[in-house]
Design brief:
Layout (H helix, E strand, L loop, with lengths): L5 E4 L17 H14 L3 E4 L1 E2 L5 E2 L2 H14 L4 E4 L9 H5 L8 E5 L3 E4 L2 E3 L3 H13 L3 E6 L2 H12 L8 E6 L9 H8 L7 E6 L4 H11 L2 E4 L6 E3 L2 E2 L3 H14 L7 H8 L4
Length: 273
């Protein structure tokens, strides 16, 4: 079985210091949380950025500052900017970090009800636009999957040349409006992928560690972090993103799965030969 790639989603766009005081906002805080995750065993930092007051932004300049600060502390880590941004942002805003030509970036392949009146919009034409830009900048997309239909969309657009294969997927499970975080639904998504695909699993809230365990056993990869869950166990806030990564490392070792270094992760994902 391949070594396990751990992704740390260190801050997201919605979670705040009110949820957990350790959620990072400033450049220095983001670099700190990235380093603690990397030191614990994360090969990929899934990156949203914030203004100092916590407001989410897709500013190219802010991303560049955060990436530079992370690279000082973790020179070989893979940095994966989000193109999801936050609800209501335009395509132009959301694509700004791709202009920096990172190794990877996320590509959301469908529209989702996020609760109340919030709709996370990703039309087919938007997905084509994002895919085209990533091909132009030689950025490997991580296809974000909130439901089975998003796998189908990615496969259709791969055939049309908007996404290069083999595709790396991220199952984001347990989000309001998306697929649940039950084991049944994880297996449904996993069995819907072509054989050459790779995938990672992000369980929201209480689903984080049960789905991480399922992914480890099944040969997939794992995403944890404050974007998805701020607790290390029921009722106990995590002290850092690194503590969440450490828990996944312990589970993996107990199950006999080795942890991938950033270089090994690049080989598994086809970022280097």
């Amino acid at each position: 079985m391949e070594k396990l790639i751990i992704t740390a989603a260190i801050c997201g766009a919605e979670v705040t210091k009110e949820n957990n005081p350790a959620v990072p906002y400033t450049v220095e805080e983001i670099a700190r949380e990235a380093y603690l995750s990397y030191k614990a065993g994360a090969s990929i930092i899934h990156l949203h950025v914030r203004e100092d007051d916590g407001k989410p932004t897709q500013s190219r300049e802010r991303y560049q500052k955060c990436i530079e600060a992370i690279k000082i502390k973790c020179p070989d880590v893979i940095i994966q900017p989000s193109t999801g941004g936050s609800v209501g942002m335009s395509s132009k805003e959301r694509l700004e970090p791709v202009e920096l030509a990172p190794e990877m970036a996320t590509l959301d392949c469908g529209t989702l009800n996020f609760g109340g009146d919030e709709i996370f919009i990703n039309t087919e034409n938007m997905i084509k636009e994002f895919g085209t830009k990533m091909i132009e900048k030689n950025v490997k997309p991580e296809v974000e999957v909130f439901d089975k239909s998003m796998i189908d969309m990615a496969l259709r657009l791969e055939k049309k040349g908007f996404i290069k294969s083999p595709i790396h997927y991220s199952f984001v499970m347990g989000v309001n409006g998306g697929i649940s975080g039950e084991l049944r639904d994880f297996l449904f998504l996993k069995e819907s992928l072509p054989g050459e695909s790779t995938y990672s699993v992000a369980g929201i809230g209480r689903y984080e560690f049960p789905l991480a365990t399922a992914a480890i056993i099944s040969g997939g990869h794992v995403r944890v972090g404050f974007e998805d869950n701020t607790y290390i166990e029921k009722g106990v806030l995590a002290k850092s993103n690194g503590e969440l990564v450490e828990k996944v490392v312990r589970i993996a070792k107990e199950l006999g799965r080795e942890i991938a270094t950033p270089t090994e992760a690049r080989k598994i994902l086809g970022l280097i030969k």
